[in-house]
Amino acid sequence: MGRGNFLHNTYERVSHFEEVAEFISRQVLEIKCDIETQKLSSDTDYACHLVFKLSQKCHGLQCPVKVQDLLHRKNKEFQYIYFRSPRFVYLQGNGRVPKYRADGLMEVIVWEFNSGNNDHVPMSLKLRCYEGNMSGLIVYGIEFRPT
Question: Matching InterPro entries, A to Z (predicted)?
Answer without folding.
Answer: PP2-like
